[in-house]
Amino acid sequence: MPTDDTGTLSDSQRRRERRDTLVRRRRRLSILGAVLSAGIFLAALVALWHLAHEMDAAAVSAALRSASTEQELLALAFTVVSYTLLTGYDFLALRQLGERIAYHVTALASFTSYAVSFTLGFPIVTSGTVRYWIYAPHGLKTWKIASLTVIAGITFWLGMGCVLAWSLMREAQALSPILRLNPALVQAAGAGVAVLLAGYFVWVSLKRRAVIVRGWRLDLPGFRLSLGQTILGAGDVCAAAAVLFMLLPAGHGMSFETFLAVYVLACMLGIISHSPGGLGVFEATMLIALSHLPREGVLGAVLLFRLFYYLIPFVLALVMLLIHSGWSRMRGKAARASPSGRA
């Protein structure tokens, strides 16, 4: 090992060693995360396989047809509410970045990016790509689009954490048999999530905070904007959960607050598994957690939820992106044909 004249490591060598240590640590964490995700996904598939073999296909088909028109209309209405609130994610992120872009552009970018990423998975890549396609012509730089995507992700997790903490603490007794945990432990878990949220708010309130990843600096929102993110995210999570809640079999006897905790946990496991839209993991979690209800009815409700919240918005987003692409080409041709160079 090369040393300086005193026989000790030079500063540059120490920095290089620290950097190499961090790289190795990140690589190990990345591998551990991939193994954990694969384990959750495979475990969910095995559970889903066993549960599916115990079901009657005719009963599942009957459950799909049993949803009333009122249930479907309410599910559709809450889907619209959820995706409308999602447009606020980009609005708040643009405010943090000091950018002003027309709301119709923000709404298009937000809706299409989430509808695509929810279905295809890998949100950083898929939603970032869709946002770049829409925001770049309006002068938003690549690094700002990346920052916007991360800030919007923070909004989602703040909302999820808020809803999870509230439902775990408030409905500990009802959740205890569902989660197969002692009520005190359920309440303690909710309190732990609440403490983490409070700690984050205190942390961003004391001074301007930023995270730096490989030379890329991201300034985090302060207290007021973080509070707005939490309220907006919680509203979106509640609206999305309401879509599935409305489609559950009649007479389930479960309060919405109790269902919220089950829904959030199923979503989190689906996200950790990295399967597109939590496919397989979300279904298995819901079937196991709601085992006191008819499994065919729960699976039918989840399949309808996939239709209303994932498939229909995904198809609509693709159509809107095609129209946007065609309109952009027409404007480009008009600009090139105009003597002044403007459409």
Structure overview:
By secondary structure, the protein is mostly helical. Helices cover 78% and strands 2% of the residues. It contains twelve helices and two strands. The chain has helices at 11-53, 57-66, 69-97, 103-120, 123-135, 142-170, 172-179, 183-206, 223-247, 256-273, 281-289, 295-337, and strands at 210-213, 216-219. The protein has a two-stranded antiparallel ribbon with strand order 1-2. The protein is globular, with a radius of gyration of 23 Å. The N and C termini lie far apart (65 Å). The relative contact order is 0.13. Residues 47-51 have low confidence and may be disordered.
Please summarize what this structure is.
This protein is mostly helical. β1 and β2 form a beta hairpin.
